[in-house]
Specification:
about 350 residues, alpha+beta, Aminopeptidase, 5-stranded mixed sheet, 4-stranded antiparallel sheet, 10 helices, 9 strands, about 35% helix
């Protein structure tokens, strides 16, 4: 497998275009009609390999800041186009490299400014390592506050990874996407957030977290019942989740739930696929990442309605096996906890 590398949205599109034009492929990579469009008109792109009745869906970047999940999906596309053992007459793999193109564009546009256009590869790597180390250090702050090592006021202060972006030229930020730029900057300025929050923007341009944007999310009730502002945790501890922002806000109006267009596109895709005669959906791999590692985390809270009667305990076992196989082939480490696996 090719080495992971940073990809902005243009890099992703160019790499996939090259894959589709590669005449040495054993299997054709096809671009399908977009699953839908975001409110600011960005396409939620959809690609397939194979033409079999059994469908496997693979998606990345539900959270815009989880760049490596998109890189992984693109590399997986590349691997399967070359795999002589892939049974294209039995399986169709549906790839959705970027579920949240607005968030991905916001994050990578800010990261592009930080990494620099004229810097060498070595300089880019050094800056990326500085960012990673700063972010990691910021995630440890809440624990130090809890232990009494730091004052509670530190939680609301600017994080060190956010400070890395203080001097970026905002005139160049999303220069070709003024509406998305205006929407994101409005959220930042309205809440007096450091400009660096844009470098880890998991939500869409309206500040809604797609993975939280479900009507049976118990967090909605919790946020509604809160007596005051509700802040995020770890490296996002100086931002709120009860109003639109960079992470965890479930909907625009907590009193009146509405789906974001990105989620409606995914729901409609699965609904259409499930009702197509002769088609069987056998798996959905929805990848997320944290601190440079990828994971799948099945929802298994009792209060959440199980629409498809999924055996989540079995899913956890399947995830474990999948992760073990992936690690064996690619030398990645697995971090185990009570209810999820990180690879």
């Amino acid at each position: 497998m090719a080495k992971f590398a940073y990809m902005n949205i243009q890099d992703v599109n160019n790499t996939i275009k090259q894959l589709m034009e590669n005449k040495e492929n054993k299997h054709q990579l096809k671009e399908m009609q977009p699953l839908g469009y975001t409110e600011f008109g960005l396409a939620i792109k959809h690609y397939t390999i194979g033409n079999g009745p059994k469908h496997i869906v693979v998606s990345g970047s539900y959270h815009g800041a989880e760049i490596i999940t998109t890189i992984f999906v693109v590399r997986l596309m590349e691997e399967i186009t070359k795999d002589i053992n892939f049974q294209a007459d039995q399986y169709t793999i549906d790839f959705i490299p970027i579920v949240n193109p607005e968030g991905y564009l916001i994050t990578t546009s800010m990261q592009d400014l930080y990494l620099g256009k004229s810097t060498t590869e070595e300089e880019k790597i050094a800056r990326a390592k500085t960012y990673w180390a700063s972010y990691w250090a910021d995630t440890t702050i809440p624990a130090k506050v809890k232990s009494g090592e730091l004052s509670e006021t530190v939680l609301l202060e600017k994080k060190s990874y956010q400070a890395l972006f203080d001097d970026v030229n905002l005139d160049e930020f999303l220069k070709n996407d003024p509406e998305i730029k205006a929407s994101a900057l409005n959220i930042v300025k309205k809440n007096n957030y450091p400009i660096g929050v844009l470098a880890a923007w998991t939500t869409n341009a309206h500040g809604i977290d797609l993975s939280q944007n479900v009507p049976y999310n118990p967090a909605i009730k919790t946020l509604l019942e809160a007596n005051g502002p509700v802040y995020n945790h770890l490296a996002y501890a100086n931002t709120r989740k009860d109003i639109p922002g960079p992470i965890n806000t479930p909907c625009r109006d907590l009193k009146k739930f509405s789906f974001e267009l990105e989620n409606l596109a995914i729901l409609n895709f699965f609904e259409t696929l499930s009702q197509t005669p002769g088609v069987e959906i056998i798996a959905y791999f929805n990848y997320h990442s944290v601190m440079g590692k990828m994971y799948q985390k099945p929802i298994k809270e009792d209060e959440i309605i199980n629409l498809y009667n999924v055996d989540y305990e079995r899913k956890i076992i399947e995830n474990y096996i999948s992760s073990r196989i992936f690690r064996a082939k690619n030398a990645y480490n697995i971090i185990e906890s009570e209810d999820y696996l990180v690879i």
